[in-house]
Amino acid sequence: xxxxxxxxxxxxxxxxxxxxxxxxxxxxxxxxxxxxxxxxxxxxxxxxxxxxxxxxxxxxxxxxxxxxxxxxxxxxxxxxxxxxxxxxxxxxxxxxxxxxxxxxxxxxxxxxxxxxxxxxxxxxxxxxxxxxxxxxxxxxxxxxxxxxxxxxxxxxxxxxxxxxxxxxxxxxxxxxxxxxxxxxxxxxxxxxxxxxxxxxxxxxxxxx
Length: 208
Known about the structure:
This protein is an alpha/beta fold. The protein contains eight helices and eleven strands. The protein has helices at residues 12-21, 56-61, 72-78, 122-131, 147-151, 165-169, 189-194, 198-207; strands at 2-7, 38-40, 46-51, 67-71, 83-87, 93-100, 116-119, 137-140, 156-161, 172-181, 183-187. A six-stranded mixed beta sheet has the order 2-3-1-4-11-5. Strands 8-7-9-6-10 form a five-stranded mixed beta sheet. Strand 7 (116-119), helix 4 and strand 8 (137-140) form a beta-alpha-beta unit.
């Protein structure tokens, strides 16, 4: 039986739709009264695990799920040993550096050396600032990082931006993008190598 790791939240509805087109109907997970964390497809040939976005690569890397759907931002942050299979195209957003809108900083390189930068994505942020040869102190936050510049705990933030409304509502502005992110289909490398056809068939259908 194929096991698929699906991220709760913004990517879930589109993920279910794409798998449905590939012959795996997990629509029960979208029912308002659903509380199950593991749901069988209507055809009975697969099951879906409902997990947090950041846990999708973990379940796939350890082989508890053969396939998963997760944002590219999570893949960049966690760097798990999994196969990147298909750019699914939905869930588009960008990883950006943002500062207070009245700030004099116009690009990331303008930030002063050793300033504090708040982020949930500290690995992505570290890689970016290292590429600029700009030493910064990274402050790891798990909640609303927009509070960083507002409270003074950080000079800037690195966070995902979709519409930009949250930044605007909190007096912040994006000054530079690290990369763009969309939902990706990922797979467990060994399972893909040992596959006798069913997994590859799903992957091929997800490409269309």
